[in-house]
Amino acid sequence: LYILFLLFQILGAVILGFGIWILADKTSFIAVLQMSSPSLKTGAYILVGVGALTMLMGFLGCLGAVNEIRCLLGLYFTCLMVILITQVAAGLVIYFQKETLKGELSRIVGSLIENYDPLNNDERNLQDAWDYVQTQIACCGWTGPKDWENNKILINRSMTAYPCSCFNSSNDFQVDGGFCNLDVPVNSTAMYADSAVHEQGCMDGVEKWLKDNLGVILGVCTGVAVIELLGMILSISLCKNIHSEDYTKVPKS
């Protein structure tokens, strides 16, 4: 049982660290969402709170077990149950609202692409994060390169340029922030121009990453749920076996 309480301390630290990472990260797709959507930032603060609460519950559960205090074990059981129910509810919401969430992502990224301006220093962190995403996933736009036809600057340049992060690494373009001009021969077709940049949209790249790592994600979620269930079962069993409480064992400050 004490090992289980220690696992909860570690689990709480991991959740807390994950929430802090979301808030601090500036160079990934998470950063794009975090800077564009207040809801994700709120979710990160919730993760920080849940992580801190999990660590506290692990300490209280261990204290209750060592000193055989039923009220602490009962509080530990109740908090675990609330956390588990919240996690299951969040998973169900994400599953059944995935099309709505997908539409929200499209709106966020679409707005980013439309207003992308290398000279706008106010949005520099957000735009750098999106350039990083396009470079790492080897993608261009959300659904494809044609998304950049909605950019306010590129419309006036007759689509003779794309963000440098869109270009294939096999070409001799330096991947950097801002726009890079297409070296398009006279009388060339748009297909030639498109071949210089990644044809895959970042939506497909993100979905592919999720599918490739789905087993790991589900495994981690299942492992966390199993640990929580074991904690609930063991804490309530220990609570039932304590027939009388001796509060003199409680450490006094």
UniProtKB/TrEMBL annotation:
Its main location: membrane. Gene3D superfamilies: Tetraspanin. It comes from the Eukaryota. Pfam families: Tetraspanin (PF00335). It is found in: Membrane. InterPro entries: Tetraspanin/Peripherin, Tetraspanin_animals, Tetraspanin_CS, Tetraspanin_EC2_sf. The chain crosses the membrane at residues 6-24, 44-66, 72-96, 216-238. It is a multi-pass membrane protein. Keywords: Membrane, Transmembrane, Transmembrane helix. The keyword S-adenosyl-L-methionine does not apply. GO terms for cellular component: plasma membrane. Belongs to the tetraspanin (TM4SF) family. This is Tetraspanin. It comes from Ciconia maguari. The gene is Cd82.
